[in-house]
Specification:
Radius of gyration: 12 Å
Number of strands: 7
CATH topology: Jelly Rolls
Strand content: over 45%
Largest sheet: 7 strands, antiparallel
Order of helices and strands: EHEEEEEE
Number of helices: 1
Distance between the termini: 15 Å
Mean pLDDT: 97
CATH class: Mainly Beta
Helix content: under 10%
CATH architecture: Sandwich
CATH superfamily: Jelly Rolls
Structural class: mainly beta
Low-confidence stretches: none
Number of domains: 1
Length: 88
């Protein structure tokens, strides 16, 4: 499952999102499997995430995203992505 929302500044501050590590990726396409849940906040970029057997989900700047544990998907990075992330 992929849950996407626009997070408020209050939520970002409460979760201390800006202290989380930053991950970057150039334009590319690759398979990914989440061994544990990941929560992330997209700082920039345009990404299409396609779950195995599911509908594509488009994410970009300002999106707060939760990827569930066990999710298998394809990441299509249309413009370079930069995100704060946290596992578990």
């Amino acid at each position: 499952m992929i849950h996407v929302e626009k997070a408020t500044e209050e939520k970002l501050a409460r979760l201390n999102v800006r202290s989380w590590p930053v991950w970057t990726k150039e334009v590319s396409e690759f398979p990914w499997k989440y061994d544990e849940a990941e929560t992330c906040y997209i700082l920039e970029g345009d990404v299409e995430v396609i779950p195995a057997g599911g509908q594509a989900v488009r994410i970009g700047k300002g999106d707060f995203v939760v990827f569930s544990s066990g999710l298998e998907c394809i990441w299509k990075v249309h413009s370079p992505v930069r995100k704060h992330y946290k596992f578990g």
